[in-house]
Amino acid sequence: MLLFIIILLIFGYWQDKDLVLSQVEYSNESIDQAFDGYRILQVSDLHNSYFGSHQQRLIEMVKKSRPDMIIITGDLLDCRQENIDAAMDFACAAVEIAPTYFVTGNHEAASDQYQLLKKQLTEIGVIILDNRQMLIERGNSRLSLMGVADPLFATVEQLAQEGNYYQQTLESLISQGDGTFNILLAHRPEDFALYVNCGADLVFCGHAHGGQIRIPLIGGVYAPGQGYWPKYTSGFYYEGNTTMVVSRGLGNSLFPIRVFNRPQLLLLTLHSKNSEG
Ligand SMILES: [Fe+2]
User: Fold this and answer.
1) Is the pTM of this model over 0.90?
2) Distance 21 CA to ligand 1 centre (A)
3) Each residue of 43-78: pLDDT tens digit?
4) CATH code assigned at 227
5) Which of 186, 76, 81 is CA-nearest to residue 133?
6) How far is the CA of 264 from the centre of ligand 1 (A)?
7) Rounded to the nearest whole angstrom, what is the distance from the C-alpha of residue 75 to the centroid of ligand 1?
8) 225 CA distance to ligand 1 centroid (A)?
9) 250 alpha carbon to ligand 1 midpoint, in Å?
10) Residue span of the structural domain in which 27 resides
11) Running DSSP on this structure, what letter comes out for residue 221?
């Protein structure tokens, strides 16, 4: 019995702490040749977890992936913890590797510490993309990069506005790109239909933690906002002109363990279709 418990603990620790780097490719003819081979590293749902002392193991893997850009798609901190050191240890190292962009998740919206985290992230050079759009340039070519704040940040006044505040925010951000290929950072994958309706080209999400427990050949068991047997937990989803990529993320929230669902860094390489033909 003792041996069984020890094996179970080792298995649980391995599943929770052994990082995986998933490398995926994405092609679209609207991507300019200048961005062919552009590497986007997604970090999601750290939840203040540590991977090595001062995030050493996490940082080494990020460095090795040679990203052109690092994107953090929410829940960098955990609202049940006061300490933001794990989040800042990672962010301080990330900005030294590549330009780093951040959008909030539901845990930032629920945390007393978020204003402090936001101040410190801004001071070290992390670009906060909550409800903000910007152009990424390479020579004369451009990508439109934008992020949407977690909907829990919406104020009572905003929610009382006529129409759907979240949808209007997304539409306005996407229109600012003026038809340039757009990349949206948004914490929640369950709003996929909205991203499709608003005309997003490529969306990066997290939040689902891979469904926390993954049953081989079936998928994730539970995700917030989607319930049991969630649809959007890992990998690519397509509808119309929109592709959504969902990271399984790194940390845990209320449910403290991951099963068959090791913490994931996702490296997506962009390709211009013209370059392949
Ligand atoms: Fe999360």
Assistant:
1) yes
2) 18
3) 999 999 999 999 999 999 999 999 999 999 999 999
4) 3.60.21.10
5) 186
6) 13
7) 5
8) 11
9) 9
10) 2-276
11) S
